Amino acid sequence: MSALLKLQGVHTHIGQYHILHGVDLEVPTGQVTMLLGRNGAGKTTTLRTIMGLWAASQGTVTFDGQPIAGKPTPDIAQRGIAYVPENMGIFSDLSVKENLLLAARNAGTAEQMDTQRLEWLFGLFPAVKKFWLYPAGKLSGGQKQMLAIARAMVEPRRLLLIDEPSKGLAPAIVQNLIEALRELKRTQTTVLLVEQNFAMAKALGDRVAVMDDGRVVHHGAMQALADDEDLQHRLLGLSLGAHQ
């Protein structure tokens, strides 16, 4: 399986702090790659570096064989990469419809949006349709997360970067999110997903990379990690089995 995204020897500094210490990471085309690790391991910094929100001070980032490190974030997004940050980035004063329209670069009005794709999104995330005209700020946390992911998918994307989508959500909402992302997975969309919910990681991941202290210290099949409790304890300090 060829890598759609590849990081080699990536270092990132934020002010005086050296956060990434030579990250090597490959994200295969058409698969879901989980990026796991303890808090502070560098997972969010990795996503933000890929998107150009923080500049890599050393190393290479290539997307579909083309270098993207050092390019402006809008140029990176234009290549077909969408980013769902941990804080979701929802425009609270705008309606659900207006939030989606902002992300639909080829549509000037809601009527110009791809109707077939919208219906597909409504099937994945019924709350988006139900609260179409509501201010996004009045949605629940789970509904905002659904909107954030739907907004990233309102146009076809080649790669989705999603940062901890289940954080702070009730278990029932997390299960709904897993089902929606499973449907997305069936479309062979390439996803790099940071997640602390290990049941979600096991349910969705094809591949996994584990970070520690700004480096990738393990990579392989997600199922192999899920089946090896000793490896889970060594890499993460806990067991996936305790988080079912």
Automatic annotation (TrEMBL):
InterPro entries: AAA+_ATPase, ABC_transporter-like_ATP-bd, ABC_transporter-like_CS, BCAA_Transport_ATP-bd_LivF, P-loop_NTPase. Gene3D superfamilies: P-loop containing nucleotide triphosphate hydrolases (3.40.50.300). Residues 5-238 form the ABC transporter domain. CDD domains: ABC_TM1139_LivF_branched. The keyword Nucleotidyltransferase does not apply. Pfam families: ABC_tran. Keywords: Amino-acid transport, ATP-binding, Cell membrane, Membrane, Nucleotide-binding, Transport. GO terms for molecular function: ATP binding. Belongs to the ABC transporter superfamily. This is ABC transporter ATP-binding protein. The lineage of its organism: Bacteria, Pseudomonadati, Pseudomonadota, Betaproteobacteria, Burkholderiales.
